[in-house]
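Try this one yourself first.
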């Protein structure tokens, strides 16, 4: 029995059934921006990873600095409990994160760090912190949250409770998720006028005012809503949210798990607006995809209030909190970020995606194409045939993982111009092959479709 068959007999995969027919490819090797895949029929493909392994492998696979950091830490110790103990990798990581965090004149910075296991856990900790803060501040009735339609914050229960109540997973768990308050989705960045942004901000302000006595915090993904639809919105919306939070004594929580460390073109998405949240969550790219680790940062005022409250502590403590191996690799990854090269990398990727994906607008199946930073999105009119588009993209040398009606990419920052051109061409060809013709044409036919699309648009990507 082959590896894929053995997998299907025993393992679950994300958002997938336990099925003997689940489409899977075996990863035989990974290096730089490329994966070497083996299909169930034994066919091998070398593909550019357009997903950065769910947005985390920003420095590429087998990066020498990250590999060295992991090996060095293994020679010392791989894990110790964080209760009552500390170690250099955790302290150094906290100092780096505080130094990088958003800052603004006259505003308290984020200078206290809680290290968590994953992004969802970081969000859970942030929500618990907000409720404990309000209780310690004399507002124990403030137990709910204001979130945005279209938002996604993780798959654990409190995190699910602030995800979009319609498109999220709420309906699968009736009675188990907290009843929170949801504001309208922000307007799309590409078409929003100042008047539209102001109208949205007024709606949010009215909603917050109506529920202010029961709200602990506002929780948002700044500038880009990720798994809720790859929806980019104007930075001015963050300014409006900061004003609403201040007006009603609410904390402002930014979920930067997907957007942090340069993905949208600024170090943090908050920096697009010069807004400093009271609490911020980071993860995914924190370790360059090597190990699971996330962090929650908060202001000194929030930390002091909770520490001085009745509980006397933030009531959370994961077994693997502050794992030294993960912290050491994260420090190496942040060291790469600190050089500032990411900014030119993200700009290059954004330019390449904007030009490379433009031809796909010629396809009738495509509703919209958009980019922000190192993110490129093809939006279809109808739902993506995920297995077919994935397989077609692999044949064209690209690994993508579509969802809903979106075929998108968040490539590693080390991707070259040629890599980005291959990603754009592969995505275009896959959409053309599966959704434009309505049949699974051959690779030669798909290449012809791609060539004709490029010719119509004048593209040479």
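Now uncover the answer:
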């Amino acid at each position: 029995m082959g590896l894929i068959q053995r997998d299907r007999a025993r393992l679950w995969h994300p958002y997938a059934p336990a099925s003997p027919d689940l489409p899977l490819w075996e990863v035989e090797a990974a290096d730089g921006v490329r994966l070497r895949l083996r299909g169930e029929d034994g066919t091998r493909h070398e593909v550019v990873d357009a997903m950065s392994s769910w947005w985390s492998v920003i420095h590429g696979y087998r990066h020498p600095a990250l590999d060295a950091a992991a090996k060095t830490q293994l020679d010392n110790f791989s894990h110790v409990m964080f209760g009552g103990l500390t170690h250099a990798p955790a302290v150094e990581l906290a100092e780096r994160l505080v130094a990088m965090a958003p800052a603004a004149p006259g505003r308290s910075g984020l200078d206290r760090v809680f290290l968590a296991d994953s992004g969802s856990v970081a969000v859970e900790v942030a929500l618990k912190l907000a409720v404990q803060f309000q209780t310690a501040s004399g507002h124990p009735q403030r137990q709910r949250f204001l979130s945005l339609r279209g938002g996604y914050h993780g798959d654990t229960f409190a995190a699910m409770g602030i995800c979009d109540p319609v498109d999220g997973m709420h309906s699968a768990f009736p009675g188990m998720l907290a009843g929170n308050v949801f504001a309208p989705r922000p307007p799309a960045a590409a078409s929003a006028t100042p008047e539209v942004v102001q109208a949205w901000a007024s709606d949010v302000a009215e909603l917050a005012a109506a529920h202010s006595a029961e709200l602990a915090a506002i929780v948002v993904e700044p500038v880009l809503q990720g798994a809720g639809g790859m929806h980019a919105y104007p930075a001015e919306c963050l300014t409006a949210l900061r004003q609403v939070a201040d007006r009603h004594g609410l904390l402002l929580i930014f979920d930067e798990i997907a957007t942090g460390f340069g993905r949208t073109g600024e170090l943090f998405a908050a920096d697009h607006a010069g807004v400093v949240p009271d609490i911020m969550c980071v993860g995914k790219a924190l370790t360059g995809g090597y190990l699971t680790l996330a962090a929650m940062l908060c202001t000194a005022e929030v930390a002091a209030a909770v520490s001085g409250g009745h509980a006397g502590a933030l009531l959370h403590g994961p077994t693997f909190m502050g794992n030294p191996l993960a912290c050491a690799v994260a420090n190496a990854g942040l060291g790469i970020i600190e050089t500032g090269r990411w900014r030119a990398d993200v700009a290059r990727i954004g330019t390449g995606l904007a030009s490379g994906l433009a031809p796909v607008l010629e396809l009738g199946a495509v509703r919209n194409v958009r980019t922000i930073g190192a993110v490129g999105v093809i939006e279809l009119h109808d739902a993506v045939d995920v297995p077919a588009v994935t397989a077609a993209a692999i044949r064209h040398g690209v690994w993508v993982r579509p969802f809903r009606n979106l075929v998108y990419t968040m490539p590693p920052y080390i991707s070259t111009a040629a890599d980005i051109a291959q990603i754009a061409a592969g995505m275009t060809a896959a959409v053309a092959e599966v959704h434009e013709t309505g049949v699974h044409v051959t690779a030669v036919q798909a290449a012809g479709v791609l060539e004709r699309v490029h010719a119509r648009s004048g593209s040479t990507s």
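Discussion: Residues 2 and 40 are 8 Å apart (CA to CA). The chain is about 40% helix and 15% strand.
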